[in-house]
Specification:
The chain has helices at about 5-10, 25-30, 45-50, 55-70, 80-90, 95-125, 130-155, 160-170, 175-205, 215-235, 245-265, 270-275, 280-295, 305-325, 330-350, and strands at about 40, 170-175, 300, 355-360. The chain has about 375 residues and is mainly alpha-helical. Helix 9 (about 175-205) packs antiparallel against helix 10 (about 215-235) and helix 11 (about 245-265) crosses helix 14 (about 305-325). It is globular and about 55 Å long.
């Protein structure tokens, strides 16, 4: 993967926000393949089979015991209040908020199911007992998450056909180290997002417009543990965190932060309903994620740099402009889209080369979800 291809993989200038009015609309939206609408991935299974975690054996075995203990085995069950709360709260929401929430649920389900598929495929195609066991546990967790979200979509008659999604959605090949960087970040930033929302609604229960948010605290601890797994894999192979690979870490950090920022600023009604300012929420998530990633990444993005927020705002504006241009297809619209995409590439490049903050790797790799 070269730099240009990597930038195109982020594809944060593309976001389809078509309304979801039927189950067909919901399934069509789930099939969209951009980073803003999560992709499905495949990788080099032979390379995954060669992973050696012997240098982190003690931490690894402790983590396997946690997975085996399965402290969330009874968590993803809808209690008696769930259906009543859905009816009582969702009936009061305006159409714009409903559409943003549907988009959130579909994107979240697709992301969880993406992990389930990848982990299952790795499990089936390797013999390495350590990695095989890990993939089995993580696929179990992600399957629960996806199924739980799908139950909520079915409340609105928008259930996703997971079998068809697995068969028809485009798959993107990533080398194992890219899987490690991207998935580690995805799991950790997922924790930061969910716990920030949970804490906000814990303080302001009147703003919890759907009962699914009550499950977020224990749910995001699964995400946290998944991230710990990839942290151990990367710390077990020090070359993944040195040399030219630091530039890839830098790329994935920026790509994940930028896509989150652009995506969240397309959901103003949902954030307003929860009493969150999208920009303040995103920067809180960035700060939590930066604290967490010190466990494994030798650099941090300087999110307080004067250009960082400006660059993210520029990417958001360019994303909106590209989407507007797409509404009027034609030769000049295509030229405008290309020009705007070039401007987005320039902004992303400027963000990429901002000074970063060196971070010394701690002796103790594992951390606890204390936010």
């Amino acid at each position: 993967m070269n730099a240009q291809t990597a930038f195109m993989e982020t594809d944060f200038t593309q976001l389809l926000v078509d309304s979801v009015d039927t189950v067909e609309d919901a399934n069509k939206k789930a099939l969209v393949s951009t980073v803003l609408a999560p992709r499905f991935y495949t990788t080099d299974f032979a390379a995954m089979d060669k992973i050696d975690v012997s240098s982190v054996r003690k931490e690894w075995d402790n983590m396997m015991q946690e997975y085996e203990g399965d402290n969330n085995h009874d968590h993803f069950q809808r209690d008696a209040e769930f259906a009543n709360e859905v009816k009582a709260t969702m009936s009061k929401l305006d159409d714009h908020l409903r559409q943003e929430f549907y988009d959130f649920l579909i994107g979240s389900l697709t992301s969880e199911f993406s992990g389930c598929i990848l982990y299952n495929e790795v499990r089936k195609n390797i013999s390495n007992p350590d990695i095989k066991k890990l993939m089995t546990y993580m696929a179990r967790d992600e399957s629960r998450h996806a199924g739980f979200i799908n139950q909520s979509l079915k409340d609105f008659n928008f259930g996703i056909d997971l079998g068809e999604l697995k068969k028809n959605k485009k798959y993107t090949y990533f080398r194992p180290k890219f899987i490690f960087y991207a998935t580690y970040l995805s799991e950790k930033i997922g924790y930061a997002r969910y716990i920030t929302i949970f804490r906000q609604l814990e303080r302001n229960p009147d703003k919890r417009f759907h009962p699914i948010f009550r499950w977020f605290e224990r749910w995001c601890n699964d995400e946290f543990r998944h991230g710990e797994s990839f942290a151990l894999i990367m710390r077990a192979d020090p070359k993944l965190l040195k040399g030219m690979n630091v530039w890839w870490i830098r790329f994935f950090l920026l790509a994940v932060y930028a896509t989150m920022y652009v995506r969240d600023h397309t959901r103003p009604a949902m954030h307003d309903a929860m009493g969150l300012n999208a920009t303040e929420y995103d920067f809180e998530v960035f700060r939590i994620t930066s604290e967490i990633t010190r466990q494994v990444f030798p650099i941090l993005l300087d999110i307080d740099h004067s250009y960082f927020k400006k660059g993210l705002d520029d990417l958001t504006a360019l994303s909106n402009a590209i989407n507007q241009a797409k509404e009027n297809p034609g030769f000049f619209s295509t030229l405008r889209q290309a020009w705007l995409a070039t401007k987005a590439f320039v902004v992303f490049t400027k963000l990429y080369f901002l000074p970063v903050i060196p971070s010394e790797l701690p002796k103790n790799i594992r951390i606890q979800p204390t936010w």
